[in-house]
Amino acid sequence: MKYKLLSKLEVKKVGIIKNRVVMSAMTRGFANNNHSCNSKILKYYENRAKNGVGLIITEGIIVHPSGDGYNNVPHLFTKEQMMGWKKIVQSIHQYETKIYAQLWHCGRISHSDYTNGFDVVSSTNKQASGTNRQNNKPYGIPRALKSDEMNKIYKMFNHSASLAMDAGFDGVEIHMGHGYLIDQFLDGNVNDRNDNYGGSIKNRIRFAVELLDSVIKKIGYERVMVRISPSRVMGDLYEWPDTLDMLKELLKEFNLSGLRQLDISCANSNYFETSGKVIRQIRNLWPHLLVGGASLTVEEAENEINSGYLDLVTWARAILANPDFVKLIENNLPIKPFNDKMRNTLI
To answer: Reduced to 3 states, what is the DSSP secondary structure of residue 96?
Structure first.
């Protein structure tokens, strides 16, 4: 069977993506003490590229030490960190695979153990519920960003995006999902502000839109993708309280900003109950590049592409478990299931 999933796709300025299989961002935690990449991380990504993945979206890369919230995750803030990523990008490009840097700020999904002496910040003063699995402590109590501090955050993303271009990345993905900083502004269940960045939908999306505008001005709209997760499973099904109205306004502003690449993420959730449902709501609102998947079978992915819902399909755990994922599809071979032990090593 000839899968459209394995066909090429051309993206303006990025070039030809050799197939529609995307390695989605996965937090791994194997960076060195300077939050730089090492040879193990290089081999990890290289194994996926040489085995045929069309596009790699890196694990989340922290844009500034104050935005960290995890053990041993990579940053993109210093020249040393950029040079570590540059080696990876050069290796990936040998195999004609494209690679995007996912830019990340944790916001209140953090703790002072990780923020290098800086405040834990958010859209709100409300502490995130639950226990931080990184240090087995409650999440830190955040300080709500003041309206005149927003530009400092935008500059963090701009600096990291510029370094990503210096490293040779084909593009960047701004992580606006999964409950992290930018999502903390978008989500009406979290954002309790009463200034220009809270309250109405127009105000709640302001932070995301202004940040996106600034990054696009810095590196060009062709190099920018955005990830959002309006519907996902967090214990139970979790959704923005006014999902469709939010999406209509947000996508209108994204389009005006020049954004042309959008990733609808559901993390480790059932696609059809979460992001697939959202994608069906927004496909007519968003005529540009649309990325999604995560939990699909190959046949389901093929149907989503043929039906016009998706242009590129993401897999995370399946590609973690199977570095040769694309070759398995090409040869109609079985895909090895993921197991939790695989989290503990880079293969």
So the answer is: coil
Contact 179, 112 (CB under 8 A): no
Give domain limits for the chain.
4-344
The b/e string for 113-140 (b: 16+ C-beta within 10 A; e otherwise) is ebbeeeebbbbbebebeeebebbeeebb
Is pLDDT above 90 for 1?
no
- Return mean pLDDT, the chain: 96
d(C-alpha 282, C-alpha 118), whole Å? 38
Q: Provide the strand spans (E) within 24-156.
A: 55-62, 98-104, 121-122, 131-132, 137-138, 143-144
How far the first Cα of the chain sits from its last, in Å, is 29
Active-site residues, by number, are 180
Asked if 164 and 183 count as a contact pair (C-beta separation under 8 A), the reply is: no
Band of residue 186 on the pLDDT scale cut at 50, 70, 90: very high
For the 4-344 domain, the top CATH level (class) is: alpha beta
Quick one: tokens of 339?
A: 């197991």
**CA dihedral angle for residue 186, residue 27, residue 271, residue 250, rounded to 10 degrees:** 20
DSSP state of 136: T
Instruction: Decide: helix, strand or coil at residue 324.
Output: coil
C-alpha closest to that of 204 among 226, 225, 182 = 182
Q: Is 16 helix (H, G, I), strand (E, B) or coil?
A: strand
pLDDT tens column, 279-290: 999 999 999 999
pLDDT over 90 for what percent of the chain? 94
pLDDT at 131 over 90: yes
The answer to whether 2 and 8 have CB atoms below 8 angstroms apart is: no
Tell me the C-alpha to C-alpha distance, in Å, between residue 246 and each of 110, 183, 251, 254, 282.
26, 12, 8, 12, 11
Q: 227: closest CA among 275, 283, 164, 158?
A: 275
